[in-house]
Amino acid sequence: MDTVAAGVTQLRIQRFVNVYFIETGTPGEWVLVDTGLPGSAKTIIAAADKLFYPGSRPEAILLTHGHLDHLGSARELADHWHVPVIVHPLELPYVTGQALYPPRDPTVGGSLAFMSRFFPAQLPNLAERVQALDTDEPGAPFLMAWRWLHVPGHAPGQLAFFREADRVLIGADAFATCHHDSVPAILLGKPEISRAGTPFNYDWQASRQSVQTLAALEPKAIGCGHGPVIIGPAAAAGLHQLADNYPIPTHGRYVAEPARTDASGVEHLPPAPKDPLPMQLAIVGGSLLAAGAAWLLTSRRRKSRKSKAHRKAAKAAKKAGRSPSPTPPLYRGSVGS
Length: 337
Fold this sequence. Notes:
The protein is α/β, with parallel strands linked by helices. It contains nine helices and 14 strands.
């Protein structure tokens, strides 16, 4: 666990995704922000017991958004602690099984985009535990000194959280504090403020605007959904650098036209570009199959030539009155046995 600021602790799950324990300001009370991948509940419960006291439980679980690496253990944790899961209203259709997020875009490039082809689209259903954030109230639920910000582009109802007093920012997946397009870089955890979730960003203009909104906060400490904590002047400087030079991909499904969403889910999708991977796999598979067939054919021809040569030699030996296949004498042990 790493300290972001007073009363704010980051726990990294499987070196890939972060969750946050945030104290409310009342002694012994706290909230959990995000829940990691499925199967993370025991790790999170153990960390909470160590950080606070055995059997400790939060006032609520706040989800920055409902992607699987943030919602994954929410149902199990909510059932264990008997607490609500709070999301922005625009996330409700996705976390209650009524809709699917805009499809990921594996054609946008990068190792994360490549791997995104194999991520599940269906999410755990939180219908029995989820509550909608009161968007008329600017304060974050249960967190007296914090406010929430709506930062769409990566998820329709994505939330960031900011504490003005010491300028602490929980940035969700509006950006990352590691090179998020590269899976090896994510695992290495080298600090670097960068765009986040490239294959999952469904609106690139909104994503850029969200980063610009957060950069204007001039944060002094940053924790995101992915990557290490960044504290000090590098936090605001790196975020401004990203906001001023936000790298929109040169190609991809949502580059020229975003997906459009509303309170019910996805309203409109731009056409999907042709994914070159199936054809590439087919070419590679066909090449391997052809190589295997050629090897098998060559092997059979060699065996056939050897068999013909052996039969020819045997025939010649028989004609000359010799044994076609001389058999060595049986081994009978050492001399004198």
